[in-house]
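Pipeline run #58 for the internal structure catalog. This entry was flagged by the ingest filter as a single-chain record with no existing model, so it goes straight to prediction. Upstream metadata was stripped on purpose; only the residue string is passed forward. Reviewer on rotation: M.T. Logging verbosity set to normal.
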Amino acid sequence: MEPQPREKVSLTIKGVPARLRSRLATRAAESHRSLNGEILHILEAAVEDEEPGRLASESALARIRELRTRIRGPGLSPEEVDAAIALGRP
């Protein structure tokens, strides 16, 4: 069965500050996307797999917790964590 074509609509965003528009354009160029493509990418990422009323960060944290339960291993003791941190310091 072939996927259904997505219906496309046009939106107008009013009152975009020049600084925000500039930052979006820079981000789009860095991602090799058009400004419209970058805005769509941001919007899709913001609402992807979210439950209504749930923040994206909450959704990400829930996913991290889920993945963490699958990780097997002894973990590190507080002393091992402190030693690893100390190695990374100048």
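catalog note: The two ends are 59 Å apart (CA to CA).
catalog note: DSSP finds four helices and no strands in the chain.
status: ready for reviewer M.T.
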